[in-house]
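Sorry to interrupt, but I need a hand with the structure work. Could you add the entry underneath, on a fresh line?
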Amino acid sequence: MALTSTLYRFRIDLSDVDRSLYQTLEFRAALHPSESLPFFITRILAFCLNYREGLEFSPGISAPDEPALRVPDLTGGMELWIDIGHPSVKRIHKASKSVPEVKIYTHKDARLLAKELKEGKVHRAGEIGLYSMDPKFLNALGSTLDRDNRWEMTRNEGELYVGVGKESFQGRLERHFLAG
């Protein structure tokens, strides 16, 4: 018997000072049994950090050629492609050839991924956003996960602050550059 995904509800009061965006986000996200908790939390944070009109979660593991998050355009293509974890050089090369904006959020060793992407032949590598978050921060935040989640999240100068009930967590969003 196949394991099923677990659906989580989120209500996040977002204060993204870096982008001057202040909004309450309400959405649902499914955690597939094959997904690690740090991967899932990274995906949720990436959604918040890139929130804009049209941003959506992809169908998931049933659509392996799709990114974790995307913003479709009016022509059936995409404006934004966001991958989570440690995507292959080939995958990112293909995405950067067809989508104007490509970002990667990782909970793994970003230096290793950056090295692979620099050494590989990735189209427009210098324009790809590669971001990492500390696994300890992600695990601590993941330990509070409930089926119904209420967070207060602030980003200011690359620092992330997340309040969950009476607990608060702080982590850094590190940018890694692929050019030069």
In short: DSSP finds four helices and eleven strands in the chain.
